[in-house]
Specification:
By secondary structure, the protein is of the alpha/beta class. The protein is about 40% helix and about 15% strand. It has 22 helices and 20 strands. It has a 7-stranded parallel sheet, sandwiched between helices. Strands 8-13-12-9-11-10 form a 6-stranded parallel sheet, with helices on both faces. A 3-stranded antiparallel sheet has the order 17-14-18. Helix 1 packs across helix 2 and helix 15 packs parallel to helix 20. The chain is globular and about 80 Å long.
Length: about 600
Amino acid sequence: MELRRWQKKIVDDFPTILASYKRFILKAPTGAGKTVLAREIIDRFYENKKVLVLCHRLVLLDQLEGALSEGRRVRTLAVSDKGKAFTDYDILLSTSMRAREVVADAITKADLIIVDEAHRVSPNGKGYKRIIDKFRDDSKEGAHFLGLTASPERRTGDQRDQLNLAFDAIIDCADINDLINEGILVKPRYRPHFVHDLNLDDIDVSSGEYPVARLTDEIIKSSMLDYATRSYLEERDRTNGRPISAWFCPDIVVAEVTVRRLQEIGINADIITAGTPLKKRRQILTDHDTGAIEALVSVGVLTEGWDNPDCNIIVHMRPTLSKVLWGQSVGRGLRSSAGKKECVVIDVSSNWTTFGPVENLKWLLWSPPRSFVQFQNRFNWIGQQQDDEEEPETYLLCKNEIGKGRPCSHIYKKGEHEGDACPICGTYAAIDVYKEQRLDLSINDNKLHRIFFTRVPEIYQELNVRVWESLGNSAWRKANGNEKAYLVFCMAFDKSTTDSAGSETEYWETTLKTEAEIRRELIDNDRTVEKQLEFELSWLADGLDTRKQVGTLVANYGVCLVAPALSELPHSECEIKYQRAVKITERIVTLGCSDKDDLPYFVA
C-alpha cells in the first residue's frame, strides 16, 4: 500500500524520533491511517525484532490482527496463555488485562511496545500501571514505548493519572485540515441547536463527567430528540447520495427511545451497545455498511475501533465534559469515500458550542484538577471566540418559533449570511449569544492575556517602584489564597525562560525546572500555598484590574516583579514567559506547595 504524505514524513523522521524520545505518542486524526503507519514502522525498523502491541478492547484486537498478520509471525494472546513470550513469533497482540505473566515477560524482551488508542493509558490504573512500571524498570536497553491516538489527553484531574507520566512527548503527525485539503478526510459541516429545555445546571459533576442516570432523565424530559429527528429529516434530503448515519447516546434508555422514534418516522434503525453479542454486532455493522440499516444508534461502542467511510451524518445526543469523547465521535464520520463531499454533524448536545469544531481541538499531556469545570459552560468555546484579541467572532442564536412553542435554536456565525438571517429557518429573529448568556462575566485565557499586557504597563507607570518592590515579605505574610496565586503567577513570569521549546518534552523540562525553582524559594522563605480544587484565571485578572479580592499591597508588588520584562524584552519573548507562568501557577495552586512536597521533579 502506498503511504500518504504524512506517513512518509513520519517514517523518514522515525530514526530521529527514536533518538530523541523513549516514550512518545504519534497523534493523527481518526481515519488518517495510524494502523498502516504502525505496520510500516514494524516492517521498516523492526524486522526480526520483538514487538508487543497492546489495546484495551477485543474489537481493536481483531482489527490489529487483520492488519498486521500478513507476511509476519504474529500471535494474539489468549486469556489462558502462560509461559514465555515470543517463543515462535515476533509480534504479540494483547489487551492490557490478558495473561499478565506472558505480557510481563514480553515487556522485558520487546524492542518496541505499541499502544493503540493511547489516551486510554492510565498510569494509575489496574491495567497499564504495571505495564508502565515494568517498562521503566525492566525494559531492554534501547526499547521504545509508542502510543497511537487521535486525542492524546486524559479526561481526569487526578495528578497520578496523567499522560505525561506515561509519555514524554506528543509527535503531531497529521492535521485534520491538511487531511481534508488532501482529500483523505471530508470536511465536517456543523448544524448545532441549543436545546432550550435541557437543564444541566443542577447536575453534580464532581466526578468529572455528567452522571449518566441524571443525564438520561434530563434528555428524556427535554425536546432534544425532537430537534435531532427534525434536523435529521431535513439533512438526509440534502445529502449527496444515500444517507448513512451514526447516533451517539449516553445510555441504552435514550438509545432505545431514539431507535423507536426513527422507526416510527420510517428510518431503518438499529442499536448497538457494549452488551450486544459479537455475532449480532458484526451483522449490524455489516448491514450499516451496505445501507440496509440507515441509522446506527450506539452507546459507547462506536467512538473507537469502528470505520464506515460511507457514514455521512453524525447525530450527537450526548452532552459531555470530555473533548476526547466529542472529538472521537465526530471523527468517525470524516473518512472519505466515493461521492462523499462532507459529513453533516447535527449537535443537539451543546458540545460544538462548548468545545468548538473538532478540527481545531488542542491536546495536552497534562490536565489540571477540575479542568472539566470550564466545560459546564455550554457556550465556553463561543465565549472564547468573542474574546479573541485579533479576530473576535460573534455567534447568533435563532429565536424564531418553529412550532409547539419551540424556537429554531440554531447557532450560527454573525456576518456569514445575508441579513444575518438564520440559514436553517431563513428568518432573522436572533440574539447575540455572548450578550444574552452574559459570557463576559467570566475570565478566560483571551481576557486575562489582554488585561495583563495592557494594565501592567499602565499601573507600573504610576508606581513608586523603589517602595513597592521592597514589600515582598509583607505581601506574602498578609496574602490570602487568591493573593498567593497572584504572587506565584508574578514570580513565575519573572523566572520563566524566554526560550521557545522545540518539542513538548523540552517545554515540560524547562517549565517544571522553573516550577521547582519557585517551590524551593517559597519553602526556603517559609511560605506555603494551600492546595485548591480548582484554579481560576479571574484571581490573576483581579490583581491587575478590579482588585476586589487581591489587595493593593499584593497587586502592586506583583506588578513590580513582572513589568520590567515587558519593557525590556521583545513581545514574543514576553508571550513565552506569560504562557509558562499561567501553567506553572495552575500547577502550584492545584497541587499545593509545602515542605511536604514529594513530586517526580521536586522533593522538599
